[in-house]
Amino acid sequence: MKKMKTTISILLLFLSVIVLAACGQQTTKSNHKIQVVTSTNFYAEPAAKILGKYGQVTSLINSTSVDPHDYTATTADAKKTAAANVVIMNGAGYDSWLNKLVKSNQSSQAKVVNVAQDIRQLPNGENEHLWYDFNNMVKLTNRLTSIFSKQQPAQREVFQNNSAKYIAQLKDLQKQTIQLKSVFSGQSVMITEPVFNYVLQALDMKIVNQDFAQDIEDGADPKPTELQKMKSQLKHKKVTFLVVNRQVESSLINGLIKTAKAADVPVVYVTETMPKNQTYITWMKEELQQLSKIAKANQ
């Protein structure tokens, strides 16, 4: 019975997408603004910066308490997606529900940008936290600028100028990463989840507990021997710092934090989704600033 109810709900949602598609397209046509829908707010930012007053960007997830993997699309989401000229998703299974919404609307002519496929060309099974690679964000901004310019050729120069300003901010993040690499390159680091890995790779750091982090990400129980090894590495300061996803709490993670602090191993706090009252740029800057403080203390 539960399976039948779920199937009916999905069918009703998909039918609502088809019914609302024509209405959504008429709205877009009448207000002359490019309509953009994104799964998450950090992908909404570059689109909004490029478009300015010539577009309307809607992020379907804005709450830090919502896990994009587990999000259930609503009828309102279906309506917004049906009206979109451009849809931006992370891909790689991170926001597959949005991909289903787009595919269910056969009359949609929206341009879909799948960051994993179109920007990163990400192999199956690779790290899905693509927004932590600043080069991906630069490429996404350039791709969106090209798409918007084709949809509104009269505003091409405006879009290009806005894009250049935003990319300059992204380049600043890349410059800061290069500076930090000169300090941290070759050093060991411990993580609780693979959220921050692209930054750590850019710093040329060695992650000592990849299997443990993947187990936590997948909701599996880590091996006791792995946990013991990690605690020993912290106690003997075998890692430069510990990276913790602040949005995931458990007695196990709290124990690692306690062990790190007792050994004077710095703890770097990151989040998977953009914190409230932050922009993508300020969010990334604050996390990199934690690394800068550690680098300064180690000099």
Q: Shape from CA axes?
A: globular
Radius of gyration: 21 Å
CATH-level-2 architecture of the largest domain: 3-Layer(aba) Sandwich
- How many H/I helices? 12
Helix-strand string: HEHEHEHEHHHEHEHHEHEH
CATH-defined topology of the largest domain = Rossmann fold
Largest sheet: 4 strands, parallel
What topology, given as strand order, has the largest sheet?
2-1-3-4
InterPro entries: Bact_metal-bind_prot9, Lipoprotein_PsaA-like, ZnuA-like
Family: Belongs to the bacterial solute-binding protein 9 family.
Main location: other
Signal peptide: 1-21
Give keywords:
299 residues; Rossmann fold; 4-stranded parallel sheet; 12 helices; globular; Bact_metal-bind_prot9; Lipoprotein_PsaA-like; signal
Describe it for me?
With 299 residues, this protein is an alpha/beta fold. It has two domains: 2-170, Nitrogenase molybdenum iron protein domain (Rossmann fold, 3-Layer(aba) Sandwich); 185-298, Rossmann fold (3-Layer(aba) Sandwich), CATH 3.40.50.1980. The chain contains twelve helices and eight strands. It has helices at 2-31, 41-51, 75-82, 96-104, 115-120, 134-151, 156-184, 197-202, 210-218, 224-235, 251-262, 280-298, and strands at 34-40, 55-61, 86-89, 111-114, 188-191, 206-207, 242-245, 267-270. Helix 11 links the parallel strand 7 (242-245) and strand 8 (267-270). The chain is globular, with a radius of gyration of 21 Å. The termini are far apart. The model is unreliable at 1-12 and 14-31 (pLDDT under 50).
Summarize the structure.
The protein has 299 residues and is an alpha/beta fold.
